[in-house]
Amino acid sequence: MLEPVMFTGGLYKHDLVVELVEDLGGYVLQKNVTQTEIILLILIPSEDTAALEALSKELRGELVRAPLAGTEVAVVTPTLAIHHLPHTACDIAEYLRRHGSKTNMLGLARGVGREIAQINEYETALINEHDAAVFIFGNFQECIKKKECLYRNISVPVVVTGGPDMSKGDLPYAFEYVPSIGRVAHRARKSTEIGTLDKIVEVVGRALDKTRNAIAKDPLTTSPPRVMDAVREQVPEVEFSYSPLPIALNLTGCRVKLPYEGYKDKVAAVTFDEGVKLGEIATIRPSRMKDYILVRILPNSETGFVF
Amino acid sequence: MDPMEVFKIEVTGQEEFGAKKYRELIMDILQDLGLIRSIGKLYVYVDIMKPVFAVYGLLRSGIPPLTVKDVGDVLKVQGGYQVKINDEEHMSDMLRVLWNHYGRERVEQPARDIVIIASDASPADLMVADLEAEFLQDLTDALVRIAPEGFRNRRNVMTKDSFFFIAAEESLTPEMISEIKEKIGEMENA
After folding, report:
1. What residue ranges of chain B are covered by domains with CATH 3.30.565?
2. The Cα angle at residue A193 between residues A187 and A196, in degrees rounded to 5
3. CATH topology of domain B6-62+131-189
4. Could you identify which of A151, A260, A268, B134 might form a hypothetical disulfide with A158, taking C-beta atoms 3.0 to 4.6 angstroms apart as the criterion?
5. CA distance A162 to chain B (A)
6. What ipTM, to 2 d.p.?
7. Are B177 and B166 in contact (CB under 8 A)?
8. How close, in Å, is residue A139 to chain B by CA atoms?
9. Does residue B3 have a cis bond before it (omega within 30 degrees)?
């Protein structure tokens, strides 16, 4: 069982952490360098966390559990206009990031209004590439109820946030409703507001656990971090991608940030130690996000084996 | 405490929370844009089932236009006038006005905050900026920000001492406007 943790510390000697993680059979998911500080998102075998804790203590770093690491969450607002951004949307996105998730902010083209709100097929498909979605709505009950049409066709769990206190029964298509974070014109700084952000993280965590449980019933042929590691090793061009995170992990696969046409065959030809090729155990599709490659690992029921 | 004399907000249906939040939101936005002191009374009417959003406000007494003597101290010196700038925010506007009025060759700026004009006519009463027009522009911006985003059919009537803003999703009809005016009149008289 791999444990998701986040290491924050000085740049000096951080490679000792990376080496230890690799020696223990864990994975470094993301490396963020900010001047002399570094933030590492790590998956480490749970029985070995004590070793990593000891090392981070020695390096005067901080090691915290990052329950959302290795997942991608979409934070969806009705548009990208000043009415919805920056306060609520950025606060939620930033808070999810601090708990380890890869967060994408998404503004719909025509998500505004009560009667006129719409979502198109492209937007739906793009949100479906994530592991969960957080929809940010406003202060009026009637609007929140009416805007259900925006996420009715989304297959990943949808967490809805809004201002008024409503029961979950009013929103049958949502995974959960988190109240008291509607449209506001200031940053979240009061303890009640921060408490609401904590609630969102907790609910998103639960939504992801639900997906994890569903996957556990028919496990994936191999784990997404392993695919990420193999692609990083055998397609070295990915390290030259301009994205801050060249391979983004999902619960069911990953997104390789290289042009689809140029690299799809190379990604499909990635070979594991067992002699299996990635193309045999996963579907390689064009992603809806830019021109990237979307890798979806097939479950045990389709390939007949797990390694 | 509200800095306005009257601030009423009415939302139809079971939307007490929305009304409370919109009150905070309007205050935040007006404060951000520095408009709150210029508005005396404010009435907001929202019918979310139609849906329509209307604001009627009464403005405090008009703002006089900004003149050269408000921007800096005007002194008579040998061969003309000297302006010692106190408020650099309107410096560029003032220079443009002086250039237009006296011509560039007669306006000299020996130091960052000193302008010397070679003329016998005092520049003290020249108008630098129409603050009232700027205020009305900012107010329109604030109203567009306050109204829910999907409400894109808007009408904004501004007079010297009041403004009436209405925004809706559907086309605005004369009947709708008069009905809302009536509702706001009721709020005013209540």
Report:
1. 6-62+131-189
2. 125
3. Heat Shock Protein 90 (3.30.565)
4. A151
5. 10
6. 0.74
7. yes
8. 5
9. no
